[in-house]
Amino acid sequence: GAPASDSSKSTSTGNLSCIKGAQALMGSLANASSDQVAHALLIVAASCAGAVTLEESGSKSQSSGSADTPTHRQRAEKLLKAVQTQAEQLDAGQADKLLIKGELGTGISSKVLRATWRGLEVAVKTMAFTSSGSGPETPLGRAVTEAALCTSLNHPNIVATYHYEFKRMETSAAEGEQLAVVDAAGQKADGQGGKATTDYKLFLIQELCHTTLDGGLLLKIYHHADGKPCEPRVFATLVEVASGLVHLHSKNIIHGDLKTVNVLLKADLRLTHGMVAKLADFGLSAVMDPTRTHLSNYKRGTPFYVAPEVVEAGKVTPASDLYSFGVLMWAVYVDKLPYVKVDGRFKGNPAFPNFPAWANPGLVALVQRCLSRDPSLRPTAHQVHQWLTALADAVADEEPVAPGLPPV
């Protein structure tokens, strides 16, 4: 490597001298009184400040017996308290810092990372977006809504959000590619002629879960080898999803994007089925005035899950969530997606919403009710929860299927 500069040599020599002096000083305190130790501490502090060398202080402390030890002790105690306070402040500052450990997943407009925060293993959802426009329908508006909703919700079947933070970043068009800035349509936004734009990044620090409900289906934890569902586990999970939805609707919150990838699974060995389901991703959620019958101009949702009234008229109500839940229940029970990919394009699955002949008639009837084109004919979240609870109780004595969730 490059040779050390004169200043680095001087610092290195000084550090070595300091170490030798400290060793000599500490060696002389083997049988020292508390006053002498206090005096020595003050000398070390003075040496750190450059007021005296440890070699000089060590020799003086051995030869001088007339030091004002109470004063030295008081000053040393004051110094130690100051150092302790500073250390606590540093610890507090470090505690809030995220230690990123890896990536858990990536979406169109967001990324989920695994991290440690305040001693907890957490998931960090990050989303970058431009500041263009204003209002609740802009990327910034939706991010603010998501952050506010996430931190206000407290329920065992809704993913816990511990903290959120917006960071403002100035970037050029060239840097925009690195930030993966997204526009209102969820597409990557290109820079405009190299001009600097104001971009933001949202950090949501949330509890760490093992996988999504979609991931659970891929792991085959809901079905036997013959393809039939393990009804105790399927119904238990659906009851939990319904429970989270009941809580949302009690707060006049419409989820707006209920689907298998927006339900997280977390291992919980206290439960018979070994895990708990939690609603997540409130990026398309909306709060509805309880005096209104619906929200208008709502053009959001995931194709093949979204209710027909949203697609056709832009109207959304809590019943719209129940349609999406009906699609989700069908997908989990029959282990199929509501869409297929043909020639590179997504199309509705011809099998949807049919059930095999052996399907549980109670679940079939519930799904059919939820998929009613008329929103007024759909059951409420509370009614669905009661219905599913009855189905779960009826099969509670059956053995759950293995395997369970793998380690996170």
From TrEMBL:
SMART domains: S_TKc (SM00220)
Pfam families (UniProt xref): Pkinase (PF00069)
GO molecular function: ATP binding; protein serine/threonine kinase activity
Transferase found in the keyword field: yes
Keywords noted in UniProt: ATP-binding, Kinase, Nucleotide-binding, Serine/threonine-protein kinase, Transferase
Domain Protein kinase: 98-388
CDD domains membership: STKc_PknB_like (cd14014)
Protein family according to the UniProt entry: Belongs to the protein kinase superfamily.
Protein name: Protein kinase domain-containing protein
Organism of this sequence: Chlamydomonas leiostraca
